[in-house]
Amino acid sequence: MNGTGKQPQRPPAPVGIFKPEAIRDIAEGMGISTLPEGVASALASDVEYRIHQIVEEAVRFMRHARRTTLTTGDIDQALRVLNIEPLYGHTSHSHPPFRRANVMVPGQAAVYFVEDTEIDFDKVLHEEKVFLPKPVSWKAHWLAVEGVQPMIPENPPQARNEAGKTASPAPAATTRTTKTGTAANKKQAARHVLSRELQLYYNRLTASLLPQGSDSTKRAAALASLRNDAGLQALLPYLVRWVGERVVHALKTNPGADADGKVLEIMLEVLAALLDNPALFVEPYLHQMLPPVLSALLTASLPQERSSKLRKTAAQIVSRLLTAHSTTYPSLSPRLTKTLLVALLAQGKTSGTREGAVRGLTGIGKEAVRMGLISAGGLQLLSSEPPDSPVVSAVLDALRALYPPGTTPQPPPLTAADAMLLRQTCGDAVANALLRDTEWASGVAAQIREPDDQPSGSLASSGALESTQAALTMLENMDMEAVAASMGVDVPDDFEMVDSMDATMEQVA
Amino acid sequence: MSVTPGSSNTPSASSPIDLSQDDQFSKEDTMVLEYLRKRGLKQAEQELREQLAAAGPSTDSKATTVSTAELVKKNAPAIPRSATDRSNSLADPNISKDAISVVVSPLLGTQMGSLGLANLMNAVGGVEDALATGPTDRHDGFRDLEAWVDGSLDMYRPEFRPILFPIFCHFYLDLVEQGLKDAALDFFRTFSPSLATHHLPTLRHLQSLSIPSHVGQDELARRFRNEKYLLRMSRSGFRLLVGWLTEGTGGEAAGAGDGFTGESSRRGRSAVMQVVNNHVTVEVLPSTGSTANAAVNWEENTGLVSALIPDGSGRESAPGVSAPQAFNSIRKDLRLGLPAMEDNLRDEVERTLREESMLNGEAVNPGGRYDPNSLPRPFAPPPNGHPAPTSSEQLPMPPQFKTVDVRREVEKIRDARKRIRLDPAGYSAEADLNGLDRTGMVRARALPSICAYTFHDANDGIACSTFSQDTSILAAGFSESYIRLWNIKGEKLKGMKNEFQLSSIKDSNSLKRVRERGGNTTRKLIGHSGPVYSLSFDPLTGSAAPPKHLLSASADATVRLWSLDTMTNLVAYRGHQNPVWDVEWSPMGIYFATASRDRTARLWSTDRSTALRIYAGHQSDVDCVRFHPNALYLATGSSDNTCRLWDVQKGSCVRVFLGHQGAITSMAMTGDGRYLASAGEDLAINLWDLGSGRRVKKMTGHTGLIHSLAFSAESTLLVSGSADWTVRCWDVKAPGGLPTKRGAQDDIAMVDGFGLASRRVPATADAGALPTGGLNDGPAEQNTETTDLLATFPTKRTPIINVQFTPRNLCLVSGSVASGTGDNR
């Protein structure tokens, strides 16, 4: 009685691959309708154990056949050595295509079945040629020659080559030529095919982005897709190139026209969206993304009504890009600063360019603003601007970044000396705006007076105009090689970046 | 019919047969009895009744089908055979008090007189202990043990860590045997992840055992039950363990509430103690030695080794020979030296060489004189510190040498002259110390040139392949039961015409006439009826000429000898009962050895159709077989995770190599006859010193099964080909070990082989989701490359199934392109 009392206490549903329900189903299929719970459970466990046994045996056959996939042949062999009749009719070469049938009964598990393909006899009989499968053949190649793996198509590309890791790259500065050589190789190796779907997507996307192509809702959808879709990595180089081309086209053909301004705006939005997309790995393409942004920022003439907005957007993009990627590319921010400083300080630049430069510096950060406006004498250069010029508002924005405007309602009065200094350096337009908020003004004046306490004081010198010249010469002499070497990676690419930036600027100018 | 746990096994519970007698007989019998009674044939009825009763209630002589009730009974929890047998006294907690009294009362009766009260109390206490250990106690006990091991001093942890595994296995088996399937599964799921890094295959197997009858049937479970699990511990460590087991001292449970003082933990400890007492042998070492050393050696001295160690022959067959080292040391020294060339043959070879150098001496050697000392390798083989065998000890060979022998030896010397020297010594060390780019010169000196032969359109069909020694023929064995030969040099492989009279062949011209006309550079050899798993070209011609014969081993349990002259099958050697996994010619030809699933290796000679020697002793399949270069010894690798070295003549096992954690997949012997390299399913390559039987080092880094190993001719470089699509080169002489750059903590984990490494298993990996993609997706994949790995050469999706060195040290590898798109790495 003890035992029967225990029976219900036994685990009703043991865990395993084979469930007692399956056993009961099979039993019902064989006409045994009353199979006790304990028997079903024990049978399920036993079946599982037997299958383990067979598979374990089959794995040995697999291992000795030096394969890593278990085939039906292995199972057959295992059954044979275990003295069980093998299952005939299954071959390794035709994987049974199990199909899932949707069962409409709720609560019922899915049912899988093997589909029988229909063979059209007429077709088979009238088929002209039956090709024999290709016979096994071999091909020899050098996997390694004296311990070095040759770069031939038969060997896997270097990227996956762990042996390449051991041959550590020599210092970058000395082997520029070889590096460009490998870069060329890399480009050759990276040739790949864009899938049809992506091509279609690309065409649709570019068409809907352009202003003549579609309305604003479609465009918003396209931008949202760029911002969020994860599968765009393969398209990224194409998109970046397309943006670059459109920007150059817009700036070259008719810089003043409103339509082109619109194009520029959209292009900047596209870039911003690409940078926003968390799934994209944009770092390899930064050097291609920067020229369009800088061009929009620094170009001499933009459509009047859009100019300010465009430059602001571009500056924002620069700022975002730097916050995200300056850790990977430590030299990115100095380079950008340099480009912008040149645009700000060089002779004969239009006020538009200078406005852009100031906005760009604001985007880079406080240090850059101090360097450009105060140490290098940018303020003085811009002091003659008329008060309603956009340059003035840009400068004021920059100064806001440099020193936050006052918040106290009763600010301490500005000393006369400071007011004088401000007027001298900033010019009347800016100074007037500054003097309305005395706390801000005194803060800015303090910054102007003591440029030496800043970390980048090496660039500072006393005389404003001399400092401009000094800064420029210093920038010219800045040892790009050393900077590049410190980065260690992508030297040719970065040079390309600088070159292309310069080229764009020349075009624009 | 009630299934009372006590009634099935306990002898005292005698179920009265007479009462339920008729119920126990089958229907037919009852009818017969009824009939006899009706007729009044009392005597006949009585006799039949007695006979039936004697045959037993569950007599299968008539009813062959097992009723469902029987099945239930069979799978009902197994109950201790007797209470005094504490080895298996793992009683069901649900057993009633009556049962206890039943069990105890005979004790009272039998032991009262002789043993006295104290013993009685002990016995009763033992019974109580046994009854008290329920599933939760095992759970708690194991948890406490693990906490104690992890909380022990760093110094002892590597010693203690191995104890977890046998305790785990026995607890699991206990639970299964008691029919507590859910508890067993729960136990498995909770504790297996921390053990999975090192014991994955065993764990997988254990997981499949889930009903009591399996425990009795399964081979692994039986081994666990019947054999002692060997552990090694220092004296102080063992004392600590005993202290914990008895008093619960010395460890602190991490957040375990009442810790070790509670009643439940005491019961848990007693459960652990039972296993330790009954199934574990602790070998106490006099001193701890260096812990690092102990940590490295755990895999050589831990496990169910007793069955793996052959019985010591004669004098010391005592069970004291439990460790492989002990076994290896009591076997006398081996004659591992290489035999010198026969005098006559050497004279002939010298003469040939002299003539040759005279002929083209002007061109090659300005001195114009043959100077034997100028040879890079003199005729005498290099001494390796072991005594060389005398000719009487060697396998009997034909008394006279032939032309082909001279040609082979001459070619051998020529090869030695032209050999590319590979000397990786200093290669890796230099690079590590100086951080310098390795110069081409050094690399060229250290690393071989590798030529890869890639098979296309084989669809996973190629099970093995090999190159002939003169690199003229490439052979591949297929799963589709045939062998295909290719002539690499592009010459035609010609057989003989179908009908010809042997008597018509008198000279080379008439022989040429019976050769096939056309021919192809490839040829199929058909004869086997199962996948061909191994091929071996005969070494008789050496590198001087194409080989004449080929041996093939197949799943159809035969080995076949093929003539490459006629391209036909000459002999089928039958004898193995099961698939033959491996075949290799002896270094001098004529003899060959096979390894089979029937757990034996056999020695054959080509002219006899039965085996000359059978080498039995492995506990599982013999997976591979390799001859020692002097043909006196034979190495076998088996699925019981050991390699053995056999005396070819005597047929006795002379060395056991323990240390792999998986089946052996491949082996190689050095040319100087001192070392054996073996690769296992644990993805490690072990290097063994044959003389002492010790492990020299362990090389890891592969991420897939290692299909093939080969030493360079100087034995300085080892090349391995693997299913992870790489060929790797290893420095044989370097000390090896894992890199120490990754921080001390990490390093300890790897050196322990246990403690911290096991914690890297993600906590989410429960038992149901043990990694199923194979052994190679372990979590510790990133940091397994030992420092003696010189280079890794990846291929394009080609698992390498064969690596080989030519006599001139060019490395040849072959494999067929993986057909599927799935990345199996």
UniProtKB/TrEMBL annotation, chain A:
Residues 16-80 form the TATA box binding protein associated factor (TAF) histone-like fold domain. The keyword Nucleus applies. One of its GO terms (cellular component) is transcription factor TFIID complex. GO terms for molecular function: protein heterodimerization activity; RNA polymerase II general transcription initiation factor activity; transcription coactivator activity. InterPro entries: ARM-type_fold, Histone-fold, TAF6, TAF6_C, TAF6_C_sf, TAF_TATA-bd_Histone-like_dom. It is found in: Nucleus. Residues 164-187 have a biased composition (Low complexity). Coiled coil: none annotated. Residues 153-188 are annotated as: Disordered. Signal peptide: none annotated. CDD domains: HFD_TAF6, TAF6C. It comes from the Eukaryota. GO terms for biological process: chromatin organization; RNA polymerase II preinitiation complex assembly. Gene3D superfamilies: Histone, subunit A, TAF6, C-terminal HEAT repeat domain. Belongs to the TAF6 family. This is TBP-associated factor 6. It comes from Exidia glandulosa HHB12029.
From TrEMBL, chain B:
GO terms for molecular function: RNA polymerase II general transcription initiation factor activity. WD repeats lie at residues 525-572, 573-614, 615-656, 657-698, 699-733. Keywords: Nucleus, Repeat, Transcription, Transcription regulation, WD repeat. It is found in: Nucleus. Pfam families: TFIID_NTD2, WD40. SUPFAM superfamilies: Taf5 N-terminal domain-like (SSF160897), WD40 repeat-like (SSF50978). The keyword Endoplasmic reticulum does not apply. PROSITE patterns: WD_REPEATS_1, WD_REPEATS_2, WD_REPEATS_REGION. Residues 1-25, 356-398 are annotated as: Disordered. Residues 134-247 form the TFIID subunit TAF5 NTD2 domain. GO terms for cellular component: transcription factor TFIID complex. One of its GO terms (biological process) is transcription initiation at RNA polymerase II promoter. CDD domains: TAF5_NTD2, WD40. The keyword Transcription regulation applies. Residues 1-18 have a biased composition (Polar residues). PANTHER family: CANNONBALL-RELATED, TRANSCRIPTION INITIATION FACTOR TFIID. This is TFIID and SAGA subunit. It comes from Exidia glandulosa HHB12029.
